């Protein structure tokens, strides 16, 4: 199996740990172990007692029980914990597909959602989100995309990189389509619970039937990427068992300290969400003002959820714009080309506390940039 470079991760590998301002991160502001343990009485003491042996391969029972609180109908035995969402995506694709299968994948998107399927031998049809539709997926396109060998639809809402949140009607239609056509629905929900209006939150896919698999992680909405704890939740026993069996060849089980910390995080997730949405909403006011000051240079679809947006740069080539921003003022933006976007979009991160300072730097850069 051949996997091409993961463009976004290679771009980050070059800059993430040597650039002052990361203005394109997808995760929310992280915190220290001490700060996380402080959210729950007694957790600091209990953390000292965490046993450093192998853990249960499917994830500790108490962690899986906490994860179930995200869902309506899911039981601990329906949850399989992984090392990040990345491992779960990888194992799902190899558990679910065979060479010659066909899958329909939300595009643009997080590269592994399409690439690992391709690596598993699938033909991949992008289901293209378009800016002129506010980054919505067009439901009318699904019947045209489906083939006799189609095995799954892969969606991501709230969406990386656009911040698009599917409407309840469209979401129901995707589910109906998957069921009617006997397809699996892999629903990447790693930004769930970061909707700016909680009333717009969609039901988790795994609660709607055993054709669906929901993907979650502590990294994004909860701001704890360093834990490397992700999971799938599904009532599809066949997929669950195959993924569990493949996991024996990757990580076997998860890190014991991380499992305990993830359990504390999930038990107290409302506090983490409140903090992180507070940061995002404050940052959005700054970005709103920034874009209204520079309406000649940028247009954007304001996100409805999550820690990202995918604005359009109107001043020319986005790659050289981003390249100069990082070299001249130490502000990292992510050119849309890492998502194979050819229309000069870039990813903007909204979840970091130092966004106001990063935007000041960007202003300084724009004052020097020869704009149209
Ligand atoms: C949509 C989506 N899915 C999955 C992942 C992987 O999450 P993690 O890096 O925590 O494994 C990411 C990370 O950026 C993502 O944006």
Question: How would you explain this protein's 3D organization?
Answer:
The protein is α/β, with parallel strands linked by helices. Helix content is 38%, strand content 15%. It is built from 13 helices and 14 strands. It has helices at 7-15, 33-37, 43-48, 61-68, 84-96, 112-119, 142-145, 168-180, 237-247, 256-267, 269-293, 318-329, 355-368, and strands at residues 21-22, 79-83, 102-107, 123-128, 150-156, 184-188, 212-217, 229-234, 298-299, 308-309, 312-313, 331-332, 334-335, 346-349. It has a 7-stranded mixed beta sheet, with helices on both faces. Strands 10-14-13 form a 3-stranded antiparallel beta sheet. Helix 8 links the parallel strand 5 and strand 6 (184-188). Helix 5 packs across helix 9 (237-247). The longest helix has 25 residues, at 269-293. The chain is globular, with a radius of gyration of 20 Å. The relative contact order is 0.18. The model has no long low-confidence stretch (mean pLDDT 97). Pyridoxal-5'-phosphate binds at residues 26, 84-86, 110, 156, 160, 188, 190, 217, 219, 225, 230.
